[in-house]
Amino acid sequence: MKCVIYRRVSSDEQTKGYGLDRQLELAELLANEQDLSIQQIYTDKGKSASKGEHTAKGGQLRQLYDDIESGVIHSGTILITEDLDRLSRQIASIAMGELTTNLINKGIEVWTFLDGLQKYTQTATFTLMLALVKQETAYIESAKKKERGLASHANKRAMLQNGEAPKIRRPFWIDLVKDEYVLNEQGALVKTIFELSLQGNGRINIAKQLNEQGIKPIGWKHDSKRKNEWDSNKVSNILRSVSVMGDWHSPKHDQTFKDVFPQVISRNDFHKVQSLARKNPRKLSKHKISIFQGLLDCPYCGAVYSRRSVVKTDKTYYSYKCSNSQQCAASKQVSESVLDVFVLKYLGDLDWSFMDKDDNTELNAELLELQHERKILNESIKKRSSSAKLDRLDDVEIRIEAIQSQLDRASVSVDTEFDHERIINGDEQTRVRAQQALKLLIERIQVYSVGVLPNELADTLPDKFKLMRKHGAKQAHVLIHFNSGEIRQVGLCSDYVASNRGLLVE
């Protein structure tokens, strides 16, 4: 049976993000599960359904209606879309007439997947009407909440300007007591961190001292799989927070209000710490930075790969080895000079413009966390979709787009010709930037140091890597798993690359 897919986003921010990609991915997943053949994909970017832009001339939904009318799309075809609001945001009675006239009465079934699979056919028009009424009610409630939210923010802003204390997100060293902000006992911890910094201690050393004293971090979400300890990022967040001076910054509206909270650190000391951070960059390690740190793992036992070093005749040689090598008989050591060269050679199509851009470590770190959250949300949505999850996903995508735009604005626009030797032989800053860029793009790299074990690749990626048969099943190689879903196989002995996206290069 044939189907068509319709996807739409109304804002430019979403078109630059992954809203369209998410809709298409889930629609294609549904089509595959239901054994449907996708005939056509219709996409409206930046078209408002409430204004009817997608059904006007030039709109892709208008094109779909015309294709149905002309017979290009036949009766009996299934239309898959995320939700009915992708098709119409008119009041229920108008939307009902529009959808029945252009789709249902023409023999086109409408399937949606936002809250589980819903099917709307000629024999289920009452179900369609109920869904549209429910949708209209939800819009009215949403509009009311938005209006109340705007009014609430305006009220909070007015209170701040009048020196009052509204209920806003506060730093962990500030409490709200009887409509007044007061400094709690954690203020002493903040002072200690700044004193250590002013004494010349770096962020890593400060975190180490706090952990040695048994002081637990407060104000951060704790992952139960990890130790609840201080690290350089947590220390950095406090040292950079304008709240220590008593100010409050609204990230949503990018507005800073002065003298909102009790001051913990003087403005003079705060700016001294910022100046010290700029004058004392991180000291160079005696070992060069590993470009693929945290990305390599062993496909035979599941352990991570660690980097080893050995000094011979005053020269340091590096290699990668399974951290569980004593129990993992299948793995073997791989030279860093071999793996880095072969893998980087076939990553030249990625965006390497970071090589000539300013350092934005903290923004990139936040971007990495958001991309990880997006991945988890997408996996969760595939198992069970919900409006709350999709709303959070949209928020994450918008924030990702905002960070990417900020990084673009802060960077120097230079067309960088890719040169993997420049990265391999680069200084620490170059290798750190390469490491950060790879972590943003790559989920993991599996190191098949002795080739594929029997049937392992065939079970996971059937018919994707034809070059495996050509070069031999025992060929040492890596599988690069990108966050985008692409997987590349790169040979470590023979010079070749294969991709599950159909890109084959030798």
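(ticket continues) Second input and output from the same batch:
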Amino acid sequence: MNADVDRRRFLAFLGAAVAAAMTACRGDVLPGEAAASTRVRAAPGRAHADPVVADAPPVPAASVVGAGSGPSRHGAIAPPVPGRPVVVQEGPRGTRLVALTIDDGTSAECVDRYVAFAQRSGIPITFSPNGINPGWDMVAGRLQPLVGTG
């Protein structure tokens, strides 16, 4: 046998081994456990997507801090749904609601402009300051009234 044939066999074996290892690492079901999961269809127009597998046990709503509590002009917050999240491609038809999520910014000027935009537009924005970057310090007083309105 020549070196080319041995190399091809080795590469074929290596490819099969990597594929088997990656399949085993999916994490859907641990070895020795039965697959007791809920399957959810992919969003319309996404026929090629794998279904979402939800194998986490349900979490009682009472054990989640703040679940279903707190004032909101859009109604009560629904309790969490067990399992993996489902990607939403579009909102309900006939509604004109928008909400934005802004991660912790490092630029004080940028953070200031996001807060000014939220004040001007009235669009609900979820800010996620982590308390490390000082850009949030200068807008803390302006954020408090926005937090109070939900």
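Agent notes: Residues 16 and 78 are 45 Å apart (CA to CA). The radius of gyration is 24 Å. Closing as not reproducible unless the customer responds.
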